[in-house]
Write a structure and sequence with these properties.
Elements (H helix, E strand, L loop, with lengths): L1 E8 L5 E9 L4 E8 L5 E5 L4 H17 L11 E8 L7 H19 L5 E8 L2 E8 L2 H14 L7 E6 L8 E4 L11
Antiparallel strand pairs: 1-2, 2-3, 3-4, 5-7, 5-8, 6-7, 8-9
Helix pairs in contact: 2-3
Protein name: WGR domain-containing protein
Length: 186
């Protein structure tokens, strides 16, 4: 699947996004846009050939550039970590199900709201860490709380931390507050 996503900050400070992709399985070209953190609007074009899709993606990228939209490089985005406390040190079969369900829920929720991407997951002793890359850390934290609650994942075991783009190692707990101890990945 070919995919493009661009962002623009409006004069009032609002961050908006546009994205387009070609789904070969459905011969479908999709354009999606909206305000970061809010459900986006989508327009689909069906029965698009792979050759035509390449031209449509090029035209989309050119129009976005003309309108002042640009990609946000990963180094300019925040790291946001959703962390679940686990009963076992290495992760059980139940914990692997939690990892899969949480990763899927976050990926889908973030995609339709321009909130970022799930970069990776990892098990640490008694913890599951889900690493996200986000153009707006505060909106991503709020989005994580909504989507994980809606997915009916154990909200009482959830901790969320964020780090600014310039210092990704400086994760600071954002949920729950106040933090009872320093945030730790391991």
């Amino acid at each position: 699947m070919n995919f493009l996503r661009f962002y623009k900050r409006l004069d009032d400070g609002t961050l908006v996004f546009r994205e387009a992709w070609f789904d070969e399985d459905y011969a479908q070209f999709v354009v999606n846009h909206g305000t970061v953190g809010h459900q986006s609007s989508t327009k689909e074009t069906r029965d698009v050939s792979a050759d035509a899709a390449g031209g449509l993606l090029d035209a989309f990228a050119q129009q976005c550039a003309e309108d002042g939209y640009a990609e946000i490089p990963p180094e300019e985005q925040s790291t946001v970590v959703a962390q679940y406390a686990l009963k076992t040190a290495g992760g059980s079969e139940r914990d692997r199900y939690l990892e899969d369900k949480a990763r899927r829920a976050i990926t889908e929720f973030f995609a339709w709201r321009g909130l970022g991407t799930v970069e990776r997951t990892e098990f640490a002793p008694h913890k599951l860490n889900i690493f996200c890359l986000a153009p707006d850390a505060a909106k991503a934290v709020a989005g994580l709380k909504v989507c994980l609650r809606e997915a009916k994942l154990d909200f009482t075991k959830l901790t969320i931390a964020a780090a600014p783009p310039q210092d990704r190692a400086a994760l600071k707990q954002k949920h729950p507050l106040p933090a009872k101890a320093p945030f730790s990945l391991g």
